[in-house]
Amino acid sequence: MQRVLIHPLASVLSAFGIGVADRLAMRRASLRLPLTSAALDAADVRLHELERQARDELATYSTDAAISVEHWLELRAGDSETSLSVPASFIRNVLSVFRLHI
Question: 3-state DSSP: the chain helix, strand, coil percent, rounded to 5?
């Protein structure tokens, strides 16, 4: 025989955990462009649009000062189906990090 034990305050503890958990809003978009300075500029514009959307979603939960934002690019080598995530930066930095991992 198996027993399942459930704490009498399980629902309260669950609600408390949800209440203190960090909120997360993640946005993604695909540009599918060769990695050039112009493509990186287009990605930067798109990243800021996505950031605005995420900030708008999180605005009901916290102030702008409490929101942490990270911009990442998912890059592929050639026709590969696997992408590598690298921090969005200047073209030379993006290429350097990407080359380091392929």
Answer: 45, 10, 45
